[in-house]
Amino acid sequence: MRVFRVALPALLLVLSASAEDVVHMTNGDRLTGEIQRLHDGSLLLDTPYAGTITLDWASVANVETATPVVLELADAPAVAGRLRPDADRQGIETDAGWREVDLASVTAVTSEAAAAEAAEEVPEATANPWSGSATAGLTLRSGNTDTLDIAMAIEAKRERERDTLTLGLSGAYGKAEDVLNTRRHTLDAKWQYYPHERLYIFGQGLEEQDDGRKLDLRVRATAGLGYDFIDTERTHFSGDLGLSHTWEDWAAYTPAERDAARTSVRDAGSARLRTLALGLGDGSVTPTLQTLRDVAIAVLDIRSPLRGAETRSEQFMNLQLGLYFEQKLFEHSVLTEEFVAHPSLEDFGEVQLSSQLAFVTPLRERLDLRIALESAYDSTADESDVDAWDQTFITGLRYGF
């Protein structure tokens, strides 16, 4: 019995020691305790001799855990099991056996029990797959020059396990000295389906109109493949390649040109109608069929001054090459770049380019400041007598929901 009393505490001490997690540092130190979590490059270890201590993950040589943990990896799906080194190699023991793990690729470590508990805190039935934002910017100026510029955009995104749907609507309106100089809108929808971890199939539809570039209507349908080259907590970079069919209608005038042409034709019609009326009154003009025809044309010029204005319609096949980059800066700010090229398959000298560089930084909860530079290039702009490059600098407030 005395032997049992002595052996039992010793056995419990051995079992408790063996149940501890072990962290080996690159400087040779060996630390024991219970791993709490790894986050933002810091490992929290609860020790019986110094409480909870923080270790630099970059200084950890290898880890051995007494219970299963969940590893989140920068370049692979999350994996669960017991961390166990083998010689100089770090590995994890899973149901499928031991596999090597590069500690530099580990972004988070959580105990399996804690991960399951966190998942239960947000029931799947109540999780909302939708998120989005609304952005608005307004510029007013009065005095020597009266101007008004309004820009608005709404984006909604639904993210599920294997597919993502993104919807976007943007528009702008501007006047200078009561002359319309900007009126455009864009409606865009993109669906991505991931048959594999980073490879996705996508379908996209776009409809846009831009009076300032004489674009009366553009409709484009695209389908293709894409790949997420980098997808980490702070950085995302992806690209896709697709085949598009594009329909375009081009107007004869910009808003300012249209207003000037409308005024000129109406003034000429009014002057001609007055001349005919005076001539009929004093007898200098004889009422004939030609006179009636001239009166009818003058009335039509006043009522519909731009009737018969020439328009240009086109449809063609083209490629779509898209590159998308997102980088978190500082703690919460984000820098994004979206570049899309549409080279024509019928004339390799024709290409349309678009770029949107944006910086978003929070002002308060759900409210951000957004600064963006939007650029567009069309190699066929000379056919419509407009500039090939069109650039817009936008500053506005964005509300997330």
As for the number of domains, it is 3
Structural class: alpha+beta
* Low-confidence blocks of residues: 1-18
Kindly report the average pLDDT value.
83
Q: What is the assigned CATH homologous superfamily of the largest domain?
A: monomeric porin ompg
What is the correct CATH architecture of the largest domain?
Beta Barrel
Helix content: 10-25%
Q: What Rg, in angstroms, do the CA atoms define?
A: 34 Å
What portion of the residues fall into strands of 2 or more residues? over 45%
And the CATH topology of the largest domain?
Porin
Q: Biggest sheet: strands side by side, in what order?
A: 11-12-13-14-15-16-17-18-19-20-21-22
CATH class of the largest domain: Mainly Beta
Helical region count? 4
Spell the H/E element sequence: HEEEEEEEEEEHEEEEEEEHHEEEEE
User: What's the total number of strands?
Assistant: 22
**Inertia-based shape:** elongated
The rounded distance between the terminal residues' Cα atoms is: 69 Å
The largest sheet, given as strand count, sense and whether it forms a barrel, is: 12 strands, antiparallel, barrel
